[in-house]
Design a protein that fits this description.
alpha/beta; eight-stranded mixed beta sheet; four-stranded antiparallel beta sheet; 11 helices; globular
């Protein structure tokens, strides 16, 4: 049985919107509902992909896992303990166990620090060794990620984007973490450099027994790296499945649209592209029912009135859609009445 290392339960993150009153006072006018009750487990040693379009709440969820964002409600459990119930001492220890690789590698490196000092900084903060021991550890990690140790005294502006991201990976590994939250770590890199960084991450995971939460909007990258994939739309988890099952049996209409946009380098292969119409609803005032109803060709009045729960559609495959959930008979009756055809089974090999 797989060991659950992290559990996210009903995570909600809302941001208050404030306005000036008479040029002096601030008062809450409304809230941006960035994350709306998502739940998932992360197994030790796996790579869980979190995908979705910009603004869906995937990065906000990742930042909450490393305690950079405070949830409005819900729990994040690390080995069964709520990380938001930690005292100062336990939090200090948790910082070692959960690290983050950020999307913009340049802005996360202090331009005044050499890369050697940047990599050593976490060890200095956590008082892990002498100066000589930390320098030795930093140089070992530089070699691990493919940066010559002779570059130890160089500054961030002297490196390319791919090299800076490798430095970010090295710094994240200094404290021997259990979990790495990777927030679109290759989205700003050239395709050839992306492949190098992804292969490096896979190699490090095997050798160091790391657990990754990999946040991305690029399904081709996620398909290459991840074991399971969760799809988020407007702050809601709409599908969660093992990678092979998701690509061979995509269920949610939003997942179908995302996967149909993946380019296939085969001129003989014909696949219908799903073009979503309409705009993404505002997270300030999301729909009462299914968050995807306004863009879904299968939507009925049930979808507008009642939000579907994330339910098991088949073994190891969860989806938040009335077509496959506990109300599928009611939904299919409404679709038949409205002359809406049931979705065909589709998938990629």
């Amino acid at each position: 049985m797989k060991e659950i290392i992290l559990s996210v339960k009903d995570l909600v993150i809302h941001y208050p919107i404030k306005m000036k009153v008479n040029g002096k006072l601030w008062s809450q006018k409304n809230r941006v509902q960035a994350v709306n009750g998502i739940s998932f487990d992360v197994y030790k040693g796996e790579t869980l992909g979190i995908v979705g379009e910009s603004g869906c709440g995937k990065s906000t969820s990742g930042r909450a896992i490393v305690r950079l964002e405070k949830p409005t409600s819900g729990q994040i459990l690390y080995k069964g303990e709520d990380i938001w119930a930690y005292d100062k001492e336990k939090l200090f220890e948790y910082r070692k166990k959960a690290q983050m690789i950020f999307q913009d590698a340049y802005s996360t490196l202090d331009p005044r620090f050499t890369i050697g000092r940047s990599i050593c900084e976490p060890m200095v903060i956590h008082k892990m060794g002498t100066r000589e021991e930390n320098e030795k550890r930093a140089k070992e990690l530089m070699r691990e990620v493919g940066i010559p140790e002779s570059y130890y005294e160089r500054y961030p502006h002297e490196f390319s984007g791919g090299q800076r991201q490798r430095i970010g990976v090295a710094r994240a590994l200094t404290l021997n973490p259990d979990i790495l939250v990777c927030d679109e770590p290759v989205s700003a890199l050239d395709v050839s450099v992306q492949a190098q960084v992804l292969n490096l991450m896979k190699d490090l995971q095997e050798r160091m027994e790391l657990t990754y939460i990999f946040i991305s909007h690029n399904l081709s990258v996620v398909r290459h790296l991840c074991d399971r994939i969760g799809v988020i739309y407007l702050g809601n988890m709409v599908e969660l499945s093992e990678k092979r099952e998701l690509f061979s049996n995509m269920l949610h209409p939003y997942t179908r649209a995302l996967i149909s946009a993946i380019p296939i380098p085969d001129p003989e292969y014909k696949r219908e592209k799903i073009i979503l119409e309409g705009d993404v609803p505002t997270p300030i005032n999301p729909p009462k029912g299914c968050p995807f109803a306004s863009r879904c060709i299968y939507a009925t009045k049930l979808c507008w009135e009642e939000k579907p729960a994330l339910e098991v559609a088949c073994e190891g495959h969860q989806v938040a859609c009335h077509i496959y959930g506990s109300k599928k008979e009611i939904m299919q009756g409404l679709m038949k009445e409205a002359k809406i055809p049931l979705p065909k089974r589709e998938g990629l090999a």
